[in-house]
Write a structure and sequence with these properties.
Blueprint: E1 2-3, E2 14-16, H1 31-35, E3 47-61, E4 64-77, E5 87-93, E6 101-111, E7 114-117, E8 124-129, E9 132-138, E10 147-156, E11 164-166, E12 173-183, E13 186-193, E14 200-210, E15 219-231, E16 249-258, E17 264-266, H2 271-280, H3 291-297, H4 300-303, H5 308-322, E18 324-325, H6 337-343, E19 345-346, H7 348-361, E20 365-371, E21 391-398, E22 401-405, E23 425-429, E24 436-439, E25 447-456, E26 462-471, H8 473-485, H9 487-496, E27 501-509, E28 518-526, E29 534-537, E30 560-561, E31 566-575, E32 580-584, E33 589-592, E34 598-607, E35 610-619, E36 623-624, H10 629-644, E37 648-652
Parallel strand pairs: 3-12, 18-19, 25-31
Antiparallel strand pairs: 1-13, 2-14, 3-4, 4-10, 5-9, 6-7, 6-10, 8-9, 11-16, 12-15, 13-16, 14-15, 16-17, 20-21, 20-23, 21-22, 23-24, 25-26, 26-28, 27-28, 29-37, 30-36, 31-35, 32-37, 33-34, 34-35
Helix pairs in contact: 3-7, 5-7, 6-7, 8-9
Length: about 650
């Protein structure tokens, strides 16, 4: 996060990078834009933003002070089949004392001289989350070569929702600009994120820009203008945190404002101020006051456990089993712990605050932990921004050891968080000692282990037994799939992994006992496909962990975040049973990441009429900086080659 070069509000004038501003008129694309066939700076782009502006200002609307946001975007479609920006969504805040209003939505599709206008009847409203709604529309008649334009205005009574501007997107932008004109009694903190440079960065004081009826003195405004040119598309890839952490954007946070009577209100405060409010907050702090209720509702045999760790585990699994998660994430509103417990259904905070209440009722130390999930930007550390958080965990403290808990999922063992919660840091709310940051760390042991003992029959079939063991996060994902599909369909999915395979005697151990490793065992019959007297056998015909390299970018400017370390092991013994001899076998190999971050080895054996294969992949680190991307990419290139391109050749005796 980078501070802008000019930050102070309405006390001075400065100008940086005095570059020429670009302009455009809605509804009048140029002939160059209409005839454009490709974008040389990104030949593979399905489209490009030709021009876009956002302008935020404060205006008087029907005698009320309102924040006005005006947006204008012009895009070029280069490949209509792969262009995914033809549907536009406009989020706006609802559910408070006043709702934001989205007004004057206009959209035009230009195909040469033909213009197709968006009909008002094709603008829809959706309500995907609490307090936020969407206006949504899709451009009509989109073709290769189309120029798409849209504009809209948002009228807001919430000055904390100034938000900012995204300079970068998943398609390139030729010119993108944000302008703000804010009276000096509103003071914002601003920061520039991402690695792209500003083309225009200007701030100055605009005199007498705002006035109110009956107020003698007009207000001066801080006028700011920021722009970027030739912004490359942000290329997403597997194993990353939210793109909001890395995309070029400017972020505003309301720090304070002064009303017409001169009264100053601090909006961005210190954590000690927030801690004090949480103690009495009806939806969060006060929901921790049900110690007696949970003491009466916990089973007596759990309360009688002497060992703190065993008692903590028992309470965790009791709450996990008691509740059904309704899929709703709540943190600052709509939390009713007692009612949720009685109904056995709750949102994320109701379940985890019930867990905290239950732990405290049993005499254990437990606290709320506020986090932002992996699909959202990391929370601001310098000062409290409560809207950065969207989820609450429980922290159990036994002696000097902390255990982070989340009882919403039926698949998470004690002290193992769901994958979406692995977002680096959380804020512990400790009413006695004050809140503090805590690192969110994953479970260290995460294993996939497959052992196959197979042999050829006289009928050229391969039969045998397979056992699979899953530990940690792989076990959580495997359990989810089994529960989602059911045992029989899960077995059928395994049969599809190998050509002409039948699985029998399929057994699952510890499906519902998440504290133990998940195990699957079965027998199988495979009819291999031969070519004359030879059989070309892929060594990993039972399981290929990687069909392709997950890392494909030439350059990645943001970290790789696996979330957790892991290992994958595949063992196979194939008894040739005097049916075949081995005529060709790949070489044993080992590849390593620098500094012990990971390694992959493949070892083949051909003794006693048996073919043996041992594949081992270990990724010991789960965070890799952009500087390590190329070595990681080359490492997985080698892994994919070993698993998909090597062949064992057998010849019929």
């Amino acid at each position: 996060m980078r501070p802008l070069l000019c930050m102070l509000a309405v006390v001075f004038s400065c100008q940086v990078f005095s570059q020429e501003r670009q302009t455009a008129t809605f509804g009048e694309p140029s002939s160059i834009e209409l005839n454009m066939k490709s974008y040389p700076k990104d030949p593979e782009a399905a489209g490009v933003v030709l021009f876009e502006t956002g302008r935020n200002s404060v205006q008087l609307v029907n005698d009320r002070i309102r924040l006005i946001k005006e947006v204008f975007v012009k895009m070029k479609v280069l490949d209509a089949k792969n262009f995914d920006h033809a549907t536009v969504t406009i989020p706006y805040y609802v559910g408070g004392k006043f709702d934001e209003k989205v007004q004057d939505i206009k959209a035009i599709t230009h195909n040469g001289t033909m213009k197709t206008y968006l009909k008002p009847s094709n603008i829809f409203t959706e309500d995907p989350t609490q307090n936020w709604a969407l206006k949504k529309f899709t451009f009509p008649n989109v073709q290769d070569g189309s120029v798409l334009e849209y504009s809209y205005t948002i009228e807001s009574p919430y000055f904390s929702h100034l938000g900012g501007w995204d300079f970068q997107s998943t398609i390139p932008k030729m010119y993108t600009e944000f302008e703000s004109e804010i009276p000096g009694n509103y003071v914002y903190r601003r920061s520039l994120l991402g690695s792209e440079p500003l083309y225009i960065n200007k701030i100055s004081v605009k005199k007498n820009c705002f006035w109110l009826p009956g107020i003698a003195q007009n207000a001066d405004c801080e006028w700011g203008q920021y722009a970027m040119k030739d912004v490359p598309a942000f290329k997403t890839e597997k194993y990353m945190l939210s793109e909001k952490n890395y995309m070029a954007r400017i972020k505003y946070e309301l720090k304070e404002y002064t009303d017409v009577r001169g009264n100053k209100t601090e909006i961005t405060r210190e954590w000690k101020d927030v801690d004090k409010e949480f103690r009495t907050d009806r939806d969060l702090g006060r929901q921790l006051g049900y110690k007696n209720f949970f003491e009466n509702n916990l089973p007596p045999n759990i309360l009688a456990i002497k060992d703190p760790m065993e008692k903590g585990k028992a309470i965790y699994y009791f709450i996990q089993d008691h509740f059904n998660y309704n899929g709703k994430q709540r943190i600052l509103t709509d939390i009713r712990v007692k009612e949720a417990f009685e109904e056995k259904v709750g949102n994320s905070s109701e379940i985890n605050l019930s867990l905290i209440n239950a732990l405290e009722a049993a005499g254990l130390d437990a606290f709320i932990v506020l986090i932002s999930t992996r699909d959202r930007a990391l929370p601001t550390k310098g000062y409290p921004v409560l809207t950065d958080f969207n989820y609450a965990l429980a922290l159990l403290k036994i002696g000097d050891t902390n255990y982070l808990l989340d009882a919403t999922s039926k698949f998470t063992p004690f002290a193992v968080l769901p994958y979406p919660a692995l977002n680096k840091i959380g804020r512990v709310l400790d009413n006695k000692n004050g809140s503090y940051w805590i690192d969110i760390l994953p479970k260290k042991k995460n294993v996939t282990y497959i052992n196959a003992q197979l042999s050829f029959t006289e009928n050229n079939e391969v039969t045998g037994k397979v056992s699979e063991t899953y530990v940690g996060y792989p076990a959580m994902e495997e359990r989810k799939q089994i529960v989602k599909l059911g045992k029989e369909d899960h077995k059928k999915e395994k049969e599809k992994l190998t050509f002409d395979t039948t699985i029998n005697d399929f057994n699952i151990e510890n499906l519902n006992n998440v504290a133990e490793n998940l195990k699957e065992t079965y027998t199988l019959e495979i009819t291999p496909e031969t070519t004359g007297d030879k059989l070309y056998l892929s060594p990993f015909f039972l399981r290929t962990f990687y069909d392709e390299n997950p890392f494909k970018l030439n350059e990645r400017n943001y970290p790789v975040e696996f979330g957790f370390p892991y290992s994958e092991t595949f063992l196979m013994s194939l008894d040739l049973n005097n049916q075949y001899t081995i005529t060709e076998i790949p070489q044993n190999t080992i590849v390593k990441l620098p500094n012990g971050a990971g390694e992959c080895s493949v070892v083949y054996g051909a003794t006693g009429g048996k073919l043996s294969i041992r594949f081992s992949l270990k990724v010991n680190e789960y965070y890799f900086t952009p500087e390590k991307y190329q070595s990681l990419k080359e490492f997985f290139d080698a892994v994919v080659t070993k698993q998909n391109k090597e062949v064992v050749v057998l010849e019929k005796i």
